[in-house]
């Protein structure tokens, strides 16, 4: 009788993830295991079939061969024998040892090797530094491998011994009823090794807390919240694991003149009311120095003038943003007697033809009258 497709056996799609495969197998194994169906030969066959499919599809190499060549790409007889030997049909717990080991922390015979923790460093820079880029040095606390024992935790001249509790497996198995659960060995904490003669420098930890100084190159155009990753500059790994990474997070200090919005810059430009009324030329600051712009006659407060290309070129941008200058008409203060006299004269002239000289004020007053005098 021809074998069924392994994906069909487990009831999964061909693009199923490893986790999907485990879930499907666990469901079928629960249902068809011989310990739960002692008088049903059909269940035994279905269990063996599911076990064989699981062992092939959970192995990336075997799965690739199966996907390309089908059953001819794997040895079906070896797979069936391995399935029978692996399950043994002697205990329901054995069939689930690897699965529950993965769920609760680690697989059978796997030492507790951990990648070092990633670190975060908040770096505050000026707007000019963000725009042009810069290079700075940061000093960070971190856990580094002990140089005395080279990370082993053992005194020089000695070596850690195999843990007597777990026999170097890093895991101990607890069985209760049908279930067998693996957990981290309490003696060696998963490393599979025990240090009898601890290193005097690190007290057997294999790592030490230190301060290190790193050079950080900040590219032009970074913005608030951008991150720069320094690979391998995080904490040292445990039990020979690789180090983590360092993430430098950008924070831009508030600027006295400019505010940033994307790649554009904004600034407020105070203008005297006479300059706004009569027009003229004024100087405004940019990140590259001063620039001159012409103020048209009768410019109103709030009008924005755009200077193309005077903004910031973002890290992922192809061109510079713009600088937008927002006019703020300034009311004069500390007036002299002569200035007050002239302003009173101007006010008297405006009152004779307010609609012509102050159209916005007249329009607003007309709306107020309509509201109160329907």
Q: What does it look like?
A:
The chain has 374 residues and is α+β, with helices and mostly antiparallel strands. The chain has 3 domains: 6-95, DnaJ domain (Helix Hairpins, Orthogonal Bundle); 119-252, Heat shock protein DnaJ, cysteine-rich domain (Chaperone, DNAj Protein, Chain A, Ribbon); 259-367, Sandwich (HSP40/DNAj peptide-binding domain), CATH 2.60.260.20. The protein is built from 12 helices and 15 strands. It has helices at residues 6-10, 18-32, 41-57, 60-69, 76-87, 92-95, 97-103, 127-132, 273-278, 337-352, 354-357, 359-372, and strands spanning 119-125, 134-145, 161-162, 171-176, 179-184, 193-194, 207-218, 227-230, 246-252, 259-261, 264-272, 280-286, 289-295, 304-307, 323-330. It has a 4-stranded mixed sheet. The protein has a 3-stranded mixed sheet with strand order 1-9-8. Helix 2 (18-32) runs antiparallel to helix 3 (41-57). The longest helix has 17 residues, at 41-57. Mean pLDDT is 80; it is low at 76-111.
């Amino acid at each position: 009788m021809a074998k069924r497709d392994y994906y069909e056996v487990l009831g999964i799609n061909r693009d199923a993830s490893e986790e999907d495969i485990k879930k499907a197998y666990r469901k079928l194994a629960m249902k068809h295991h011989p310990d739960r169906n002692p008088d049903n030969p059909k269940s035994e066959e279905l269990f063996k079939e599911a076990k064989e499919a699981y062992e092939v599809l959970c192995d990336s190499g075997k799965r690739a061969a199966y996907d390309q060549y089908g059953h001819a790409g794997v040895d079906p007889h070896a797979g069936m024998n391995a399935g029978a030997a692996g399950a043994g049909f002697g205990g329901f717990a054995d069939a689930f040892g690897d699965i529950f080991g993965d769920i609760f922390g680690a697989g059978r015979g796997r030492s507790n090797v951990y990648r070092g923790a990633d670190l975060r460093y908040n770096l505050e820079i000026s707007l000019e530094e963000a725009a042009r880029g810069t290079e700075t040095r940061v000093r960070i606390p971190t856990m580094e491998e002990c140089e005395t024992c080279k990370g082993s935790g053992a005194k020089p001249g000695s070596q850690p011994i195999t843990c007597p509790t777990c026999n170097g497996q890093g895991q101990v198995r607890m069985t209760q009823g049908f279930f067998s659960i693996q957990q981290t060995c309490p003696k060696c904490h998963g490393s599979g090794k025990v240090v009898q003669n601890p290193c005097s420098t690190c007290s057997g930890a294999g790592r030490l807390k230190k301060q290190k100084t790193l050079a950080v190159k900040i590219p032009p155009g970074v913005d608030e919240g951008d991150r720069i990753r320094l690979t391998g500059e995080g904490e040292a790994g445990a039990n020979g694991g690789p180090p983590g990474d360092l993430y430098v997070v950008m924070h831009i200090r508030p600027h006295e003149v400019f505010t940033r919005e994307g790649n554009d810059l904004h600034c407020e430009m105070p203008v005297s009311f006479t300059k706004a009324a009569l027009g003229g030329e004024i100087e405004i600051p940019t990140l590259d120095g001063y620039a001159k712009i012409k103020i048209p006659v009768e410019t109103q407060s709030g009008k924005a003038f755009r200077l193309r290309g005077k903004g910031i070129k973002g890290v992922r941008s192809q061109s510079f943003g713009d600088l937008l200058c927002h006019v703020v008409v300034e009311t004069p203060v500390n007036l002299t007697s002569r200035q007050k006299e002239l302003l009173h004269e101007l006010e008297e002239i405006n009152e004779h033809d307010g609609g012509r000289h102050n159209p916005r004020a007249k329009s607003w007053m007309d709306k107020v009258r309509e509201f109160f005098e329907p």
